[in-house]
Amino acid sequence: MAPPKVGVTLATRSIYIFIVDPSLLKTDVCYVNGEWIKAKSGKTFQVNDPGTGDLVGNCPEFDAADTRAAISAAETAFASFRKTTGRERSKLLRKWYDLVIEHTEDLATIIAWENGKPVADARGEMAYAASFLEWFSEEAPRIYGDTIPSSIPGNRVVTLKEPVGVCALITPWNFPAAMITRKFGPALAAGCAVVCKAPGETPFSPLALAELAHRAGIPAGVVNVITALDNTPLVGETLVTDPAVRKISFTGSTNVGKLLMKQASGTLKKLSMELGGNAPFIVFDDADVDAAVAGAVASKFRGSGQTCVCANRIFVQKGIYDEFAHKFAAKVREFKVGNGFAEGVTHGPLIHGRAIAKVDSHVRDAEAKGAQIVVGGQKLPDLGENFFQPTVLTGMTSAMAMASEETFGPVAGLFAFETEEEVVRLANSTTVGLAGYFFSRDLQRVQRVAEHLEVGMVGVNTGLISDAAAPFGGVKESGFGREGSMYGVDEYMITKTVTYGNMALPLQK
Predict the structure, then answer these.
(1) Percent of the chain with pLDDT over 70
(2) Is the pLDDT of residue 11 over 60?
(3) Measuring CA to CA, which residue among 454, 452, 482, 456 is closest to residue 469?
């Protein structure tokens, strides 16, 4: 058997990381104007495996000048790409999709290595990521304008849908492939050219996708992927202030989203923001408890709780609180934490030390204020610096930090409630509103609560709501705009109105 191309060792067990096509792992270069280039300064930064701390590779430390060069390449490419037909763009996206499917295992391996999530979860992410390329390949030929009856006799009004222009995409580390395709798909379907700032923690997945875009024949300059770590604020400011960039799409924290929005105001760019969440997960007395437990496990612990739509506050009605807590804790005890490539592992490390510190502080705060640790509650230094036990807390109250702050980690706090009115008020008592979930078998309650939750997405009797066909986005300080679905392309287009006058001329006899 041929030796592995890449290998790491964890404790006494060798964990080998196989990459069938090593040309997908792009180190020391970014993708600009159809070429693989280094930063003009020659500077790079290190990317480390969050599970072992071992080096994955180096990436270019782009600066403002490098970023402006990428914007210029996109601006040049846009002039011609905008003229392609929807069918032509559809074929390019479909070819990109086919290549992603063909290389799914390598792409999943890269995700698991740089992000730390178990490889099985990484394969799931790749299926999700590919679905956006497929979805928007099908949307590209179906971008329609309208014919509008005019209120003025003799006038005729039509609308044209046109690509907005060069788009800057800023993506997060928690889904390094899916957040790329969810933005690239509609942008290219609309006819835009793109500069993407890849996350410094997980840049190799976006770069691998850029390599496949290149192989798919997407024209030079249409897809550009750049990297930075220390220069991230500078690169971000360059993208959102450059007048050639007409659209910003950002997924990340609310605080950074506010900063980018402020910086973008100078040129009045079109914006879409998918920001922080604090998702309520409500279980009513009339719910199917086993289904609710399964839904809570899927929602709370996916990606070790490092998702913007994961359950952050779990509200359980008092009549079934003890039963739910017992069954929920039993499921969490079945988890196996470890290196994402190790057999049987269900949950990997958190992304870095700052994430561990926040999770630990939330657990310690809750414990100090009276919560009981039913499962977990501790760091796992024997595995590595970034591991934390999946944790279940009971006896949660509104005085605890987890009630108002997003934990972004594998900690589930269970809050008791008595009435529907009370829990809806508690669920809505935040400045954010991305996702919300609830379980109930009362049809009237289902309709009432779904309408009253102040969130952009509601899961009813399910803990999983992500789907390329479903609009994704929030309200309040969780941002605005929608990704995926039939609405996704509109974020990358403008509506032009054309009015024809004096059209009602008499017919010649």
Answers:
(1) 97
(2) no
(3) 482
Question: What does the DSSP 8-state code read for residue 395?
Answer: E
HEC string for 271-337? EEEECCCCEEEEECCCCCHHHHHHHHHHHHHHHHHCCCCCEEEEEEEHHHHHHHHHHHHHHHHCCCE
Indicate if the pLDDT at residue 4 is higher than 80. Answer: no
Convert the pLDDT of each residue in 324-341 to its tens digit: 999 999 999 999 999 999
Place of tokens 């006819």: 191
Beta strand spans in 366-424 (E): 372-375, 391-396, 411-417
Q: SS3 for 386?
A: coil
Among candidate residues 25, 13, 46, 49, the one with its CA nearest the CA of residue 349: 49
As annotated, the active-site residues are 274
Q: What is the dihedral of CA 403, 373, 324, 420, to 10 degrees?
A: -20
The SS3 call for residue 179 is helix
Averaged pLDDT for residues 69-94: 98
Residue from 243, 253, 293, 261 nearest 277 by CA: 253
Average pLDDT over the chain, rounded to whole? 95
